[in-house]
Amino acid sequence: xxxxxxxRRTRRGDFTFHLSERERSILRSLPNELRELLGxxxxxxxxxxxxxxxxxxxxxxxxxxxxxxxxxxEHVEAVEVMAATIDAERLTRDxxxxxxxxxxxxRLVLGTRLDVTEDMYETGMPMDDPxxxxxxxxxxxxxxxxxxxxxxxxxx
Length: 156
Prior knowledge:
By secondary structure, the chain is mainly alpha-helical. It has one domain (7-153). Helix content is 62%, strand content 5%. It contains five helices and three strands. A three-stranded antiparallel sheet has the order 1-2-3. Strand 1 and strand 2 form a beta hairpin. The protein is globular and about 50 Å long. The protein starts with 6 loop residues before the first strand and ends with a helix. The mean pLDDT is 91.
């Protein structure tokens, strides 16, 4: 019998959220770390705010002026919901969708910092690599994101 998924839709339409204390402990620090980065020009954020017009600096500046604040607000809101519900055992659909956004953002930033490639999915990372622990967190976030997508797609 396969292991029980950590996130399951209930008959009421909300979601049970079963994570171990160890998993929650790992996840607890991540929203604060991302929140601190979001207001900066950290290069790890480049995938959260990709350029729309990389070859046209004037159009890119106009684009950023028009959308950056809205994009930033969406990222902050998702991470705030994740932080506020990290110990919850039930989540609403809206909360779980915010989790999905926050997990995606965390993965993108961590993946950018680790310079994750497709090959790394197959070969992994040697345990003696100084980035191995961060890569393990990246893999866990990838799995949790997949479980979240599956749960949201599951019709009652």
